[in-house]
Every structure is written in structure tokens, then in C-alpha cells.
Amino acid sequence: MYKTVHLKKGKEESLGRFHPWVFSGAIHHIDGRPEEGDVVRVLSADGKFLAVGHIQIGSIAVRVLSFDDITIDRDFWKQRLSAAYGVRKSIFPQWENQKSELTNAFRLIHGEGDGLPGLVIDVYDRTAVMQAHSVGMHVSRHEIADALGEVMEGIIDNIYYKSENTLAYKASEDGGNGFLKGGLATASDIAVENGLKFHVDWLGGQKTGFFVDQRENRALLEHYAKGRKVLNMFCYTGGFSFYAMRGGAEQVHSVDSSSRAIDITRANVELNFPGDARHEAFAEDAFKYLDRMGDQYDLIILDPPAFAKHKDALRNALMGYRKLNAKAFEKIRPGGILFTFSCSQVVTKDNFRTAVFTAAAMSGRRVRILHQLTQPADHPVSIYHPEGEYLKGLVLYVE
């Protein structure tokens, strides 16, 4: 029987609107002593059932798994995983019963957007990479992997667990990276996106090994690349770079502070454009590179890591976005195009736009918005959880 969390009077309203978080300040008391990661039932002050979810340390005290009074078991995981896979088949109807030869990399589970807060699963060809952002999902990882193997039978052969750096800082659990199904002997690290190949560094790379959330934005960049000199800043493993090359860019420079990322970028470019002299890659700090570079670029991509991971860092993050974009506005050629992004969840679209607009005003350049960008459909946002819309982007024409 699950232990029970009792809320303070009047604190049940957000759950009544199906928001999937219970904050610690809303809790009156807890029956028993649940361990972090245990499933608990949440009741209102007058004893009405509200939700069932994982309890954890921190300001978000419970991540809701269901608003129905159910048991979280193997059938639950299978139902949620099956529903999520059904959504992906709707997004990619060309798959029919198997992944497309043109794209075999996608997000299967996007946390709250798929009713599984604290869980991310990305699929690369025949390998699923699972990542827990809560102790509850970590504790349930084997049961989830078993259910995933059933739901995706014949579609995936390997399940790699990669949560060493994603569990909450107060958690006592060790993420314990490694294969839960299959293994290195059968797992290829090459996936395909819109016909372009790339290595996936799920062993040591950021997130699950690649950023599939920029798939559609990379395709848009390809449209603008012809004849341009391109700077891909914070390139990670070069996604925007090889799209720019296929789009007919005259020159592409990739910059990242990680030498490991630069090595994979070079390998990815070689996979798609062997021996192509248009591309160079540099392991260097972004701001130092921007300071020393000239005005040779007329297409710049700014896709930095999250500048703010919590609200306390918001002010400094916005200063960082202003500084970064101001430098790009200063250096980009007239008639240039700037793709600029924020992946910080706590930075709203209005926050980000204001920071970029301030940077534009500081530069004195005339700037037009061509596109407003976000994450793709396989990163769905629950209408009850707007915080899930984390990726913001602008495509700007700079006179």
C-alpha cells in the first residue's frame, strides 16, 4: 500500500488543473516515511484523492504519474510507452510499421509531455537511450526497460541507461550508466536524420548523445545555407554543420569548447562529406572565438547549453544571452542570417526575445524576424504543463 501525502488546505488547485507537480510548500504532512523515489498517493486537506506519483527531495516534492487512483506496475509502463509510440507513428506516418530509412532518430518519451515526468527516452536506429531525471524513474528503470522491450519488439535491440549526471543533486542514488538490454557488440553508434548520418555518443556525450530536438531547425538552416559562410557556435557534434554543407554552404566552421565534441563533429562531417575542404572545426571557448573572429560570416548559429537551470540563475542567464547575441550582431555581415536559441526551461519566450532584442538595439543594426522556432512534435508539451516548452529560437535577418 502506498504511503500518503496530505496537502495543506487550498493547495490542491494546481492538481485540479492537471499540473503534474506537487511543491514541497504545499504539503501539510506525510503518513509514514517514504523513501525518495517511492510511489505515493496525494490527498487534499479534506481527504479527497488527487494523484499518485514519485516522491523526491527538493522543491518539486511529487512528480505525478496519474490522476487516477491506480497501481504503478508493469501494465502502467506498457500502456504509457505504447501510447507514446502511437503518437510518434502519427508524427512520422511514413514509418508504417518500421522506422524510415531517412530518419531513425527520435524522442520516444519526453517527460511530462508523455505523462512520465522525470523520464526521457531517445531512439537511435536500433538503440534506445533511457535517462532518468528523478530517483523514482531510476528505481523503476528495469521495469521500464522490460516494458519498453515488449512495446518496441522488432524495432530496437538495445537499451542503454544513461543517468549518471542527471539525478537530482540531493539524491543518494548513483545513475549507473550501462546497457539494460543488448550491448556494445550489437549496438551501432550511427543514426540517420533526414538522410544525413551521425555518430551518437551515448557513452560519454551530453544528454542522450545527440540533440534530436533541433531536427526541424537544422532542416530549415539547410534552406538558407547556399553560398554562405557559416559559423556553427556551440556545435556539439556538428548537427547544424553538416546540414549547412548539404545546403551548399561555401564554408562551414564548427566551434565548441569540448575537444571530444570537435572530434565527433569531424567524424560526422567525414561520414557525410568525406574529404570536403569546406569544413574546419575548432576546440575553443565561444566568447573568445567571437572576440577574435572577423566579419567573414553571413550565417551564424548560436545554440548554447542551458544558461539557467533554475530560477535563481535567470538574471545572469539573460545577461549571457544579451552578451552572446550582441557579439554576433556586431560581427555578422550585412544581409546575414542569425539562428539563435535558448534551451533553458526557466527562460520564457518573452525573456529570450527581450534579451535578443536588447542585443540588437545595442548593435544599432536593423533586424527582422524571419522565423520563431521551438521543439519538434516528438518533444510534445502537455497543455497543463507549459514549462515543458523549453526550446526557443529566432531566425533573424540582419541588415
Would you give an account of this structure?
The structure is a single chain. This protein is of the alpha/beta class and 399 residues long. The protein has 3 domains: 3-66, Archaeosine Trna-guanine Transglycosylase, Chain: A, domain 4, CATH 2.30.130.10; 74-190, 2-Layer Sandwich (Transcription Regulator spoIIAA); 211-398, Vaccinia Virus protein VP39 (Rossmann fold, 3-Layer(aba) Sandwich), CATH 3.40.50.150. Helix content is 28%, strand content 27%. It contains 10 helices and 20 strands. The protein has helices spanning 13-16, 74-91, 135-139, 141-151, 215-224, 239-246, 259-272, 286-292, 314-331, 349-363, and strands at residues 3-7, 21-23, 27-30, 39-43, 49-55, 60-66, 105-110, 119-124, 127-132, 158-161, 178-181, 190-193, 196-199, 229-233, 251-256, 279-283, 299-302, 336-342, 367-373, 392-398. The strands form 4 sheets. It has a 7-stranded mixed beta sheet, sandwiched between helices. Strands 2-6-5-4-1-3 form a 6-stranded mixed beta sheet. α5 (215-224) packs parallel to α6 (239-246). It is globular and about 65 Å long. The mean pLDDT is 91.
Topology:
Blueprint (H helix, E strand, L loop, with lengths): L2 E5 L5 H4 L4 E3 L3 E4 L8 E5 L5 E7 L4 E7 L7 H18 L13 E6 L8 E6 L2 E6 L2 H5 L1 H11 L6 E4 L16 E4 L8 E4 L2 E4 L15 H10 L4 E5 L5 H8 L4 E6 L2 H14 L6 E5 L2 H7 L6 E4 L11 H18 L4 E7 L6 H15 L3 E7 L18 E7 L1
Parallel strand pairs: 1-4, 9-10, 14-15, 14-17, 15-16, 17-18
Antiparallel strand pairs: 1-3, 2-6, 4-5, 5-6, 7-8, 8-9, 10-11, 12-13, 18-20, 19-20
Helix pairs in contact: 2-4, 5-6, 9-10
